[in-house]
Amino acid sequence: MELEALSLAYPPLIVFAAAVLVLVLPRIAGFTVGALSLAAVLAISLVAPEGQHLAGTFLGFEVVPYYVDDFSRMVGLGLGFLGICSVVYAYSSEASETVVALALVYVASSIGAAFAGDWLVLLFMWELMAVTSTLVVWHYGGEAVRAGFRYALFHGTGGVLVMMAIAAHYVQTGTFVYTEAGIADGIPALLAVLGMGVNVAFIGFHTWLPDTYPRPHIAASVFLSVYTTKTSAFVLYRAFPVDAGSELGIYIAYMGGLMAVYGATFALLQHDMRALLSYHIQAQLGYIVAGIGMATLGSDLAAAGAMSHLFNNVLFKSLLFMAVGVVIYRTGEEDLYKLGGLWREMPLTAIGFGLGALSITAIPGFNGYVSKGMLFDAADPHYYGQPEYQALYWLLWIGAIGTLLSFIKLGYYVFFHGESDYEVADAKPGQTVAMLGLGGACLLFGVWWQGLADLAPTIHGADFAFSYYGGESHLHPYSPGHLQTAGILTGVAAVTFVVVRKPLSKLDLGDPAMVVYPATYYGSRWTMVAVTETYAAVDAAVVGAVKRCYWAGNNPVLAVDAAARRLPLVDVDERQPTDGGRPSTIHLRASIGTSVLLLTLVLTVILWLLVV
Residues in domain NADH:quinone oxidoreductase/Mrp antiporter transmembrane (predicted)? Predict the structure, then answer.
């Protein structure tokens, strides 16, 4: 009976109800309800029975709003735990009830997308996620409003592509329900990878990320840093699941490798702390996307690595946004080069940042080391990678070095470089609890890596399964070979930072992809001008022609005279108009509505006659 009750407890609905209560209850009570709703999502994700729940029909189509398997369970656990910490952080960071209510609706739509069992429900949640995340950005006002418009345009375009992919998929398969084959091959797969590529920040589609996430309230940035991108990466996996064999798999994998390098490179060039972290969302998504591409071509290890890294990214990326948010909250400064020496003023924040930085850079003992190691092994042709992954493997290596460089730079200039010019308090209690909670989870799954392996789908019972302590496996994450690789990466990054630190601080190069904004603006402006001027010219020509025809009908003799005067060798006597020159007038005896109705009826009869 308890399991049946859990199968009816729809997680998104619980969070949505909490969002409404946040608006009507006293502040502390509302935020408590919000945190508890996400605790319920965490519990349900842990124990809900596998399979389809709440299945039925909608407008004659079969739908599965609530589907539980190892993949959705893992994502639900990560999103639920992060949600609890994010609400606590928001309360302590003085976020308004309105922004938290909007954020909870956004979270509910994200969780709904993760637990969807068919493409129709997924599409609804996908669009709701785009709308609510835009409102979260807009609520802050100022520069966030314009950034929110650009954000909405990107996600609206991506949503249309996804909708077209789903429609084409239904035409080919006759069902919206998920299958083991994922999205249908051909046009549906191509449209899906383009539409989902917007949300997972494919190169060229990524500019909304660093443009938007640095602008809203620091608590809003924490929510935004995870739910759209990680949920979308999971949906990309649903479209291209393990062993699907999609022809696009190799291109998806290499796009992921390029994202890892591109994101890390432009993160290194940032002065704005949240912009730096935003580029690293793209970089870490690159590892996940690379894993999905390899997984769809048949690598169970890549699928486990992609989902594990997605889960870990939920933890350490939000932690880093929290730590940087506390620095901004206390100092009011966004530029990392204008800070320094803050570890003495803000030791707890420095610890929180350190835990997140050690995790994202894959230092042994932290969760990122385990999941990133899976992806390295899946790509390495000397382990379980295919020969065509050799270049991908090196791209992932370069991205890892760039990640280490970025976070050495960020930590050095914010917390350790020179003396602090600020006398500020450390993180507030709620901020500290949220940061250390996430940091503790990062450390837990790095030390107790078996727990992460148990959560990872596709890894159980496989020949290459991670062995537990005492077992034998060359894929043990703390084997000498893996530790040596981590040591080489760390050493190369540390030495490189010493060499490039000074010239790097003088660089201020923009992202070339940002040309999309002025190009889109001027392109749209001139397109609008061209369309409106063309319409005005056509309108003037049509109106002029109608007026001339009407005049000719009322003054046929004068019309013949006027036409004859234009002919050579013809003489026409001047005539006086019989009406004394008074212009003709038209008297309408029917209202506009009646005229439109009559015109519609006439056109309907004509179309009916043509069809029959």
Answer: 116-378
Name residues whose C-beta falls within 8 Å of residue 352's C-beta, 6 or more positions apart in sequence: 319, 322, 323, 326, 427, 432, 435, 436, 438, 439
Give the C-alpha separation, 102 to 39, whole Å.
18
**Mean pLDDT throughout 217-225?**
95
pLDDT, tens only, 398-451: 999 999 999 999 999 999 988 888 889 999 999 999 999 999 999 999 999 888
Average pLDDT of the chain to the nearest whole number: 87
pTM of the complete model: 0.84
Q: Which residues pair with 51 in a beta bridge?
A: 68
In whole angstroms, how far apart are CA 71 and each of 110, 229, 321, 370, 524?
15, 16, 25, 18, 41
CA 578 to each of CA 556, 557, 563, 571: distance values in angstroms, whole numbers, following the listed order: 12, 11, 19, 21
**Rounded to whole angstroms, how far apart are CA atoms 612 and 610?**
6
Q: Is 179 helix (H, G, I), strand (E, B) or coil?
A: coil
Helix (H, G, I), strand (E, B) or coil at 114: helix
Q: Between the CA of residue 509 and those of 122, 346, 513, 514, 515, what are the distances in Å? A: 38, 31, 12, 11, 13
Token pair, residue 288, equals: 């996940």
